[in-house]
Design goal:
single chain; about 130 residues; alpha+beta; three-stranded antiparallel sheet; 3 strands; about 35% helix; about 20% strand
Length: about 130
């Protein structure tokens, strides 16, 4: 802090004025920038589209069903036809219970025992 009674040299006075000007300019820019952000419309959920593709193997899908005990399509078969089945008698019976069994060429399949349901869960992925 400079005492008011002190007389400054012209160079120092110029530097103080320049510093004060720059400080004022920076503050004005900051206020303007913050003011502009207030008027930028926020992205709404209906305007945002997020697409992700996660392909889960037939075995992972089958293990999930066996773990939960719920027979359902996973919806992440990578665009392929998917057949699911369940049987308490045998793994082959679960395979034969799958949707589209015997109609299309099999690309991937899995059968897993579920201790929760005491039966076999099967998932078969078919070629397009």
């Amino acid at each position: 802090m400079i005492p008011l009674t002190t007389r400054l040299q012209p160079e120092t006075m110029l530097a103080v004025r320049l510093f004060s000007f720059m400080e004022d300019l920076l503050m004005r820019l900051l206020v303007c920038a913050l003011g502009l952000f207030m008027f930028v419309p926020a992205a709404r959920a209906e305007n945002v589209v997020v697409t992700t593709t996660t392909i889960v193997s037939a075995e992972d899908s089958c293990r999930q069903m066996a773990r939960t005990g719920v027979l359902k399509h996973c919806g992440r078969a990578g665009g392929r036809r998917e057949g699911i089945g369940f049987s308490t008698t045998s793994a082959e019976s679960a395979r034969r219970a799958c949707c589209f069994f015997g109609r299309y060429r099999i690309v991937e399949e899995a059968v897993v025992w579920s201790p929760i349901r005491r039966g076999w869960f099967a998932v078969i992925r078919y070629a397009d």
